[in-house]
Amino acid sequence: MKNTSMAQLEQSRISLNKFHFRDGIYFPENYEQLNSTNHKQKWDEIGKTYYGSQKIEQVTDTSLIKQDYTLLGGRPGGTWNQFPMNKFVGSILEIGCGYGRASLHLSKEKNLNCQKYYAIDISESLLRRLIKVKQEYDFFPGAEFNVICNSAEILPLEDNSIDLVISNCVFMHIPDAQLRILLSEIFRVLKPGGSFVFNHSFHNKSCPSHIIHNLIRSFNIFGKNPIYLKQYSAVEIEEMLNACGIKPKCPQYTVELTKEYAILPETIKGIPVPFAKAINKSLKPSDRWKKRLAYGFSAYSTPLE
Q1: FRET partner for 100 with CA separation of 20 to 30 A, picked from 132, 164, 192, 201?
Q2: Predicted confidence (pLDDT) at residue 1 exceeds the cutoff of 70
């Protein structure tokens, strides 16, 4: 993701009327420049096969995927399991929406509905798949769809205009400086008293799996993965949220450990680590060890209702 100065950020606070609308997607005026960045090229490449979602492109009326959307990528868990049933909001913003996995789940399993849905992602390939998923499964039926291809810390939305902001497994891929800008933007556009859910969004800096990954990365000064970035402690996450303006919008919120634990990384440089997956799944840590072994954190406004 590119560095964004405050002057650039002020210029970004424009409506979607300043974007170019093509094939169901809003593109920024500087899209050619954005398209040339390593970060976007990396996510466009990942997007071609992300979670097996390319299967949607071959869906037929007799396909099992047509009858069961979870065959695309399963049911996302974590905080989504606690999300209330039959919730209706005026507007939803999804950060790093991908092909719509989280929103599809919330619409189908939790009967979440809205009047307007804003989906932003840097990967054009994933957004085109999102449009296909919407066509096939009609999640958030009747809602106005606004699909935006742009760097996530630039939100072309008005102040206090969004009722619910959601994100699933995204923030750990964003550099710290850009993440702080993004969070400030999120709490700018969120309505006072609005809600947010950042599910599995932060890596735990104490997790042995991440520590091993970091050590291995330190020996590779030429080929570091640009989307594998910083981890945080719960205190650091809370300090960052507070500094980015969470309190005036969401006075009550929770930073919660995920229920996935890891001692070993399951892959290193794309190569599976023998028995790591089975070992990690077998972990049943005591309360004392959960803070150390948890893979990451979620953060969400409370109460979710």
Answers
A1: 192
A2: no
Cβ 198 vs Cβ 300: under 8 Å: yes
Q: Angle formed by the axes of helices 38-47 and 124-137, to 10°?
A: 40
- In terms of Cβ atoms closer than 10 Å to its own Cβ (0-12, 13-18, 19+), residue 298 is buried
What is the rounded average pLDDT of the residues 11-16?
Answer: 63
Q: Facing residues of 255 across strands?
A: 299
Q: What is the DSSP string of 136-148?
A: HH--STTPEEEEE
CB 258 within 8 A of CB 290: no
What is d(CA 124, CA 121) in angstroms, rounded to the nearest whole number? Answer: 7
Q: What domains lie within the chain, and their CATH numbers?
A: 6-203+246-257 (3.40.50.150)
Distance of alpha carbon 8 from alpha carbon 18, whole angstroms: 15
Degrees (nearest 5) of the Cα angle 228, 229, 233? Answer: 130
Q: How crowded is the C-beta side of 200, counted as CA atoms within 13 Å?
A: 15
The β-bridge partners of 294 are: 261
User: What single letter denotes the amino acid at residue 158?
Assistant: E
Q: Is 221 exposed, middle or buried (0-12, 13-18, 19+ CB in 10 A)?
A: exposed
Bridge partner list, 94: 119, 166
Residue 112 structure tokens: 């979440």
Tokens of 162: 């969004």
Amino acid identity at 16? L
Q: What is the pLDDT of residues 158-209, one digit of tens each?
A: 999 999 999 999 999 998 999 999 999 999 999 999 999 999 999 999 999 9
